[in-house]
Amino acid sequence: MNTKLTIKLDNDVIFRAKRYAQLRKTSLSKMIESYLDSVTKSASDDIEITPLVKSLSGVISLPEDYDYKKDRTDYLLRKYS
């Protein structure tokens, strides 16, 4: 069900937003609805874990002090040396 919403915005923002929507062949209302939908979804709705990833969870056990950033940096330094 669609419901009308009245909001107050700066004229320049409205002008730029309408032009942006027009260039993307959409309506300003649809653009605002999509934005509000994306920022109000819960985090669990954003990411779906596939069965393959679930099956791989826990396959590797790493030490508590493992520094993946240092490991990645070392790898890249070796690769591009």
Describe this structure in words.
It is a single chain. By secondary structure, the chain is mostly helical. It has a domain at 1-42. Helix content is 59%, strand content 0%. The chain is built from 5 helices and no strands. The radius of gyration is 23 Å and the shape is elongated.
What is this structure's SSE topology?
Elements: H1 11-23, H2 28-40, H3 43-46, H4 51-56, H5 68-79
In short:
With 81 residues, the protein is mainly α.
Features:
81 residues, mainly alpha
Number of strands: 0
State the order of secondary-structure elements, H for helix, E for strand: HHHHH
Cα-atom Rg, whole angstroms?
23 Å
Please give the count of helices. 5
Distance between the termini: 60 Å
Task: Give the overall average pLDDT.
Answer: 89
Provide the low-confidence segments as ranges.
none
How is the biggest beta sheet arranged?
none
Strand fraction band?
Answer: under 5%
Helix content: 55-70%
**Structural class label:** mainly alpha
Overall form: elongated
